[in-house]
Structures are given as structure tokens and as C-alpha cells.
Amino acid sequence: MAKNESNSDSQGTISRRDMLKTAGVGGIGVLIGASGLGGLMSITESKASSTGAKEVVSYYGKHQAGITTKTQNNVYFIALDVTTSKKEDLVKLFKEWTLAAALMSEGKPVGELSSNEFLPPKDTGEAAGLSASNLTITFGVGPSLFVKDNQDRFGLKQKQPKELADLPKFPLDALEEEWSGGDLCIQACADDLQVAFHAVRNLIRIARGKAILKWAQPGFQRTKHADAKEGTPRNLFGFKDGTVNPDVKNENQVNEQVWVQPGDGPNWLAGGSYLVVRRIQMFIEVWDRTNLKEQEATFGRYRDSGAALGQKDEFEKLDLKHKHANGSYSIPGDSHTRLSHGNGSEQILRRAFSYSNGMDPKTGSFDAGLLFLCFQRTPSKQFIPIQKRLSEMDKLNEYTSHRGSAMFACLPGTKQGGFIGETLFN
Ligand SMILES: C=CC1=C(C)c2cc3[nH]c(cc4nc(cc5[nH]c(cc1n2)c(C)c5CCC(=O)O)C(CCC(=O)O)=C4C)c(C)c3C=C
Ligand SMILES: [Fe+2]
């Protein structure tokens, strides 16, 4: 935050830094009583402000944030397993998560930072003084929340959409249980990794006794500081990744491709979206020994400009018929671009992030790759047919391995006073 900017936003809300000061950490020293956060919020909400909300993505709305939101620099993605067997615990959890997520999205702590020295603070504190950094928190439910080991765990079996099912096994899948599945998921995206981590950490803390972490994967893209022009980010193979995507500003397109529509399935999911996650390892050492011509033939695009082979501009409409003088196609038949595009009828909203988890102890190489996250209205007509084509003959498969996989239904959004999941649980 710039030195002369106020910490408060236009709604009279207050940042983590102001909250710290109010709580006495920054020196002002107001005692917070047993009324805790509720009391504190009533003090702070009346605070007027002169500047607009900075780096805040509004939490409440028809759809959850973090889907058509402009992609942030970082993600912290987690899958959880539910440990409670009581539906009312789940409802309570989603109510608490909603309030906490709304606060954190505004750059506020989830509870008082230091009101009682004999108790652990409600908020873990590492985001104190940090801006909201465009934090978005997106919640999803997996097929196993509905039925696990043939058990209708929470009386929700009748509400399970047909589309919310385990993905089929694709050729070359090398999936590991430790990176797959989950009853619930949380995608926290922010322009600051510490802010994203703080969000999931506090949400897991709130879930204590009700749900546990199953797997977690942070991811990154180039920062907006490093690329002031905010061009298409490059993946760890050095190629621009994210060029062709539905236009999130076009309401017709997102209704067609991304948001589940009333009548598509059970009504509780209308306004939500299906998320497919693939944790794809990329063999960067092998790639780095591959010549540029081969690399470009693998993607069917030029590394430098991102344009399709035989074409000039990154965003030019694909010309799959373009041929070399010798009559062969400029964009090879086994290239990632030709196969993922198909006949253009299937589209997904990709929101992928690179990851780098140090060294893979089994091989001594980097454990690095792509946390492939994509949103869609109907997985059986979007991700599944695309991935079927790719898994059968994509040249990229020589350099990648799908190690993790999961599917979630991201719930519709909610209004202030409501809670995420209300349409499913009520
Ligand atoms: C099943 C869906 C897809 C998987 C899995 C996937 C993996 C994957 N992709 C890249 C890099 C690039 N992908 C590009 C385009 C592209 N990829 C998919 C789908 C999957 N990719 C689609 C639908 C598209 C767009 C197709 C089109 O209509 O043109 C590109 C080209 C530039 C771009 O448009 O983003 C790159 C580069 C990697 C590295 C990867 C797995 C590690
Ligand atoms: Fe791709």
C-alpha cells in the first residue's frame, strides 16, 4: 500500500493494519472485551474513509469470486475430507467459512488479533498489515461428499448432479491418491502468496473437528510487477499459456461455457460451475534438451510471440488449414494446439498456475509443473472430450505426466446474510 493511502476503504471498512492498531498492537491500545469480533466490528464499521477499496474483490454476489475474476498472481489450492458425520456440523462450517472468507476478502482478520493473552488469537496474524491483494476464496464440493463407500453420508444423495462424478481414467494417467480427490475444495487466489496462504490456513483452522486437509498445492504466475503490460503469462516450458479462453466479460459466453444454468441439473447448482483440477508434472529437464523447432511443433505455436505456427499474431483466429510449401500442415496433427482446439466446439475457462515443489526424491529432478484448473458448465461436453483427445495423441505427453486429479462443483454465490452452500443444504 502506498505511504499516503488510507487503510480504510470506501464502505468505511478497515484494513488489517487498522485492526492491529485498534487492538493495541500498533500502540493505540483499545481493550477488546468478551464481545470479541462482533463488538470490534461495530466500532470499526462506523469509521469513515476517504479512499476507495483497493485490491478488494467483492465476496458476495450471484457467482463465487475466483472463477471469472481476473487471474491473480498466486493460488493456494486445497482439498479437504469431511470428518464429521453430522449435516448440521457441515452447515455450521459453511456459515463460519462464509463470514471468514468475506472478512479476509476485504483484507480483514477473521477475528480479534490479540484480545486475550491467555488464549490463542482468533486470526493467525501473518496477513496483518497486508492489503487484501485481490484475494478470492472459492468453495467446491466433490462427488464423495454425496456418496462415499456406497453411503449417503449427509442425506444429499438425491441432490448429486450426474455431471459431478469421478473423471474417467485417461490413457497415460499416472494419478496418485495423495494428489487426488477430496470431499471439499478451497481455491484461494491472491496477488500475494502470504495472503492466499493465510486464507486457507485460517479456514482449515475453523474446520477443526469437522474436516481435514487431504492435499494442498500452491501455484504462481509471473507477477503484475514483473510484467507491467500484463501479457499472457508463460508456463514453465517458456510458452505463453492462456491465450485462447472464453471472454469472461461476455455474459452470453460465460453463461454458455462457464456457469451452470437453471434446468441443467439440480437447481441448487445454478450459478455455480464445475472445476476440474489436474496436477500435471512437467519434465523441464527433458524439455530443456529439446530443440526449439521440436518445442514449437509440440505446442503448434511460436515460443516468442505465442502466435500459431504459420501465423503472425498471438490472438489471431487459428488457421488449422495453413500449410507449408511442401503441403504438410503448419500446425502438426499431434500438436497441443490442434488437439485441444478440436473443431472449436468445446471450450473451458482455464485458470492455470505453475507450481514448483522442490525436488522429486524418486527421480532427483524438479517436481515442477502446472496446476491446471479449469471451469465449465458441463464437464462431459467440455473437459472430458478435450482431455480424451489429448491423452490419446498429444505430443506434449512426452514431457508431462498427470499426477493428480479431482472434480468439484463450485457452489453458487451468496448475498450478505446468506452462506455459501445454502442452496445445497437447505
Ligand atoms: C484437457 C484440457 C487441457 C489440459 C490438461 C492442458 C494441459 C496443458 N496445456 C499446456 C499449455 C498450453 N495449452 C494451450 C492451449 C490450450 N490448452 C487447452 C486444454 C488443456 N491443456 C485448451 C482448451 C487450449 C486452447 C485451445 C484452443 O482453442 O486454441 C497453449 C496455447 C496457448 C493458449 O491458448 O493458451 C499452451 C501453451 C500445458 C503446459 C499443459 C500441461 C502441463
Ligand atoms: Fe493446454
Automatic annotation (TrEMBL):
UniProt KW Transit peptide keyword: no
Any one GO MF annotation of this record: peroxidase activity
Cellular compartments annotated: Cell envelope
InterPro entries associated with the record: Dimeric_a/b-barrel, Dyp_perox_C, Dyp_perox_N, Dyp_peroxidase, EfeB/EfeN, TAT_signal
Residue intervals passing through the bilayer: 20-41
Family classification: Belongs to the DyP-type peroxidase family.
Species name: Neobacillus rhizosphaerae
Domain Dyp-type peroxidase C-terminal: 232-414
Cofactor detail note: Binds 1 heme b (iron(II)-protoporphyrin IX) group non-covalently per subunit.
Domain Dyp-type peroxidase N-terminal: 64-221
Pfam family, one: Dyp_perox_N
Keywords (A to Z) from UniProt: Heme, Iron, Lyase, Membrane, Metal-binding, Oxidoreductase, Peroxidase, Signal, Transmembrane, Transmembrane helix
Reactions accelerated catalytically: heme b + 2 H(+) = protoporphyrin IX + Fe(2+)
Keyword Oxidoreductase: yes
Protein name per UniProt: Deferrochelatase
Cofactor(s), names only, from the UniProt record: heme b
Source organism, top-level taxon: Bacteria
Cited function: Involved in the recovery of exogenous heme iron. Extracts iron from heme while preserving the protoporphyrin ring intact.
Documented EC number(s): 1.11.1.-
PROSITE patterns: DYP_PEROXIDASE (PS51404), TAT (PS51318)
